[in-house]
Amino acid sequence: MREKKRREILGKEKGFKPTSSGYIRIALGYPNTYSVGMSSLGFQWVWYLFNKRPDTICERFFYDTGNTTLESGRKIILFDFIAFSISYEMDYQRVIKMIEQTGLPVRADERDERMPVFIAGGGFASINPEPLAPFFDVIVVGDGEGVIDALLDRYHETKGLGKKEFLESIKDLRGIYIPSITFPVYRGGEIESFEGREVEQNVSFSHPVPFTPVVTPLSHFSDMELIEVERGCRFRCKFCTVGYVNAPFREYDMEEVLDVVNHHRIGLIGASLADYTKFDRIIERLKGRVTHIGVSSVRADRIKKHTMKSLVEMGLKTITIAPEVASKKLMGVISKGITEEQIMGFVNKANDSGIRRVKMYFLIGVPEEDLSDIEMMAGLIMKVNRAFNGEVRVSVNVMIPKPFTAFERLSLITKVDYNHRVSLLKKLIKGIRVDIMPYREAYTQTLFSRGDRRLFFDKNLDKDVFVYHMDSMNVLPWGFIKRG
Ligand code: SF4
Question: Where does the chain cross the membrane (predicted)?
Answer without folding.
Answer: none
